[in-house]
Inverse folding.
């Protein structure tokens, strides 16, 4: 319920937020086997993608941390307060940047908007598993048919 009382605020200073989360908020990080951070965002960070990716890769390597990103595309180029961010990218460029960052963090990427889900690593995994199961089922059916024909 406490989530419902939260208000959106802040900036797109991703590095500052990540440093705070990793260096201050994970005080007992050595006591846990794995940890995850979820970034809920509507646009590209102020910093360059390669800089963030390098930092994220280094931090995640230090302990079992995964960064997952949920990108919500609502309005092009304008955040919920109507302020144009310091660094602008179209939705496709934004998604591409976050996919690169997530790969460096061994995390998952989800991109959705008012129209539905545009891309999701979880859904892609599920579809892949379903395709494997379907192919396996077809091979089994073919094997059974070939055994029946021999009899």
């Amino acid at each position: 319920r406490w989530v419902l009382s939260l208000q959106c605020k802040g900036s797109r200073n991703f590095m500052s937020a990540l440093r705070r989360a990793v260096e201050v908020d994970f005080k007992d990080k050595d006591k846990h086997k794995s940890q995850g951070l979820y970034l809920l965002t509507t646009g590209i960070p102020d910093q360059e993608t390669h800089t963030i990716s390098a930092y994220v890769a280094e931090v995640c390597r230090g302990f079992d941390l995964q960064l997952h990103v949920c990108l919500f595309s609502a309005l092009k180029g304008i955040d919920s307060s109507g302020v144009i961010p310091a660094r602008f990218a179209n939705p496709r460029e934004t998604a591409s940047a976050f996919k690169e960052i997530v790969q460096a963090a061994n995390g998952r990427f989800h991109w959705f908007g008012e129209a539905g889900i545009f891309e999701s690593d979880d859904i892609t995994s599920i579809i892949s598993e379903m395709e494997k199961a379907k192919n396996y089922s077809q091979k089994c059916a073919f094997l059974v048919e070939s055994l029946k024909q021999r009899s």
Notes: Residues 3-121 form one domain. The chain has one domain: 3-121. The longest strand covers residues 65-73. The helical segments are 14-25, 49-62, 91-104, 121-150.
